[in-house]
Write a structure and sequence with these properties.
Layout: E1 2-3, H1 11-20, E2 26-31, E3 39-42, H2 43-50, E4 57-61, E5 66-70, E6 80-84
Helix pairs in contact: 1-2
Length: 87
Amino acid sequence: MIDISSEASGANLFIELLKETGATSTCYVLLWDEEIDGKELPLDVAMKKVMNCGMLILVICEPGNVGYFQAEQEVLPTPRFLLKRPL
């Protein structure tokens, strides 16, 4: 788990970070929003929908080795983490 809270908050930056660590073009989203919760979406679409919503988010990229976690925003900056399974 890598703390990326201090990184700029643009979706494109986080998409690039995920791709650099092995993310594929699709992901599975867990979020309070029923429109996308529990769905497999293109990574760029998912990240642009979930960024800066201030709620708990988990994005799991196939094949499950890379992900993004955003804690509920209580203070600034929003706690954000890049998840990477050890090899």
